[in-house]
Design a protein that fits this description.
The chain is an alpha/beta fold. It has 2 domains: about 350 residues, Alkaline Phosphatase, subunit A, CATH 3.40.720; about 55 residues, no CATH class. Helix content is about 30%, strand content about 20%. The chain is built from 13 helices and 17 strands. Helix 8 runs parallel beside helix 10.
Length: about 425
């Protein structure tokens, strides 16, 4: 993400073509609010700070338009998109750090994803994930695997990757069958390995709650950190109606937020004394969109935006850092449907229609066809009623926008290919240009 370029670039534009000079070496923070389109960020802004307000995402000065195709088609997948981000080359959509199941070579020429290459070159690396630790949006940056669904197999590769910081859910994938975890569920591993025991033996401090995370963040002796904050994800996936029926909150209150995990990760990575790369994913922005749960989706965006705020504060203290944020798809094609202006503070919220004329569901605050959402105030103080509709339950090609600030942001191209995530990260981490493609 960079400052807005004041000229138009047509066709396929590389990072190097947009650059005004060579890249400078520094840290990299990539924040991946999965499935977040421009329309979804607009909806979150309206709901949280009003149509004239500014979120942390809005305050990132760099802007680029993301292009998402794969080597075998157009429809995005989380594991294929993450592979392109972490390796810098086009792959089939069904790839988890592979070329459709075959070995993969990164754009740099190394047979490693970018966080693994950073570690091999003496840099520090970490990731933050609100889902389970094998989620592809972060996991592919450290691991390759034949299938994205073998969560225990992927978890083993991640925990033994040598990454300095790993913060996520997914305790059941770390423990053997029959071993009860701190979060109340038995492990599912069939190989008998206890990856939490192995991590401690490898020198990691292991934490399970937001209180333990805070203590580790403030303990300067902690240089390697594994956080395991839920049996599965740190949120409860599903529609509003499903979560109400099961009496479940959208997010588990005992688990730290993405922002809290980001703050701790930056503290630990900073005291390694090495340049670092940190990849952060708020997975709820994708899963709640796919579940067509608008209320929980706004909470997921709030958490993603808070993580961006933490990263922006770090950038102020450490300007030799590139901060950028991008998604790999538009989850479920969200749109806002306006319902009029609030007449008075005690006005009863009008209900939204249950669906559009095409049959697409329209969500209010408690699900389909319920009371309308109320926006934050605009600059004149007016507040607006609105509903949220979704065009499909799938990840889609859509209006994804890349944002950036900090080191090398001037190298952000207006037309941003999904492979450019890798290029921006690699050239900042290593302080030199990749060879021309």
């Amino acid at each position: 993400m960079k400052c807005i370029l004041l000229f138009v670039l047509c066709g396929s534009v590389s990072v190097n073509a947009a650059a005004t000079g060579g890249p400078r070496e520094g840290n990299v923070i990539l924040i991946h609010p999965d499935g977040s389109s421009l329309a979804a960020w607009n909806a979150f802004r309206i709901a949280s700070v009003g149509p004239d307000g500014f979120t942390n995402w809005d305050r990132l000065p760099g802007v680029a338009l993301y292009r998402s195709h794969f080597s075998d088609g157009l429809s995005p997948t989380s594991h294929g998109g993450a592979t392109v981000h972490a390796w810098g080359v086009k792959v089939p959509a069904d790839s988890y750090g592979t070329d459709g199941g075959k070995p993969l070579v990164a754009r740099s020429g190394k047979a490693l994803p970018i966080l693994a290459e950073a570690l091999a070159d003496g840099r520090a690396a970490g990731y933050v994930q609100s889902g389970h630790l094998a989620e592809p949006g972060t996991g592919v940056f450290l691991a390759s695997h034949p299938t994205r669904r073998d969560f225990p197999g992927i978890a083993a590769k991640i925990v033994t990757s040598g990454a300095d910081v790993m913060l996520a859910g997914g305790e059941i994938y770390l423990l053997p069958k029959g071993v009860r975890g701190r979060h109340g569920e038995d492990g599912v591993r069939e190989d008998g390995r206890d990856l939490i025991v192995e991590a401690r033996a490898a020198g990691y401090a292991v934490v399970f709650s937001k209180e333990e995370l805070r203590a580790a963040m403030n303990d300067r002796a902690v240089k390697k950190l594994l956080g395991v904050f839920a049996a599965r994800a740190t949120y409860n996936e599903g529609s509003e109606e499903k979560l109400v029926a099961e009496k479940l909150p959208a997010y588990r209150p005992e688990a730290p937020t993405a922002a809290e995990m980001t703050e701790a990760a930056l503290a630990v990575l900073s005291r390694t004394g090495r340049r670092f790369a940190l990849v952060i994913e708020e997975e709820g922005t994708d899963d709640f969109a796919n579940a067509q749960n608008a209320s929980a989706l706004f909470e997921a965006f709030r958490r993603a935006d808070q993580a961006i705020g933490v990263a922006r504060a770090f950038l102020e203290r450490s300007p030799e850092t590139l901060l950028f944020t991008a998604a790999d798809s538009d989850a479920s094609g969200l749109q806002v449907i306006g319902r009029g202006v609030q007449a008075s503070a005690d006005e009863v919220p009008p209900p939204v229609p249950a669906q559009t004329k095409l049959g697409n569901p329209i969500d209010g605050v408690a699900g389909q066809g319920t009371a309308a959402f109320l926006s934050g105030p605009d600059r004149t103080g007016r507040r607006f009623w609105f509903g949220v509709t979704f065009s499909s339950p799938y990840d889609m090609v859509g209006g994804v926008v890349v944002r950036a600030d900090g080191l090398n942001r001037e190298r952000l191209p207006v037309n941003f290919d999904n492979t450019d995530v890798y290029t921006m990260m690699w050239e900042t981490l290593f302080g030199r240009e990749l060879p021309a493609r």
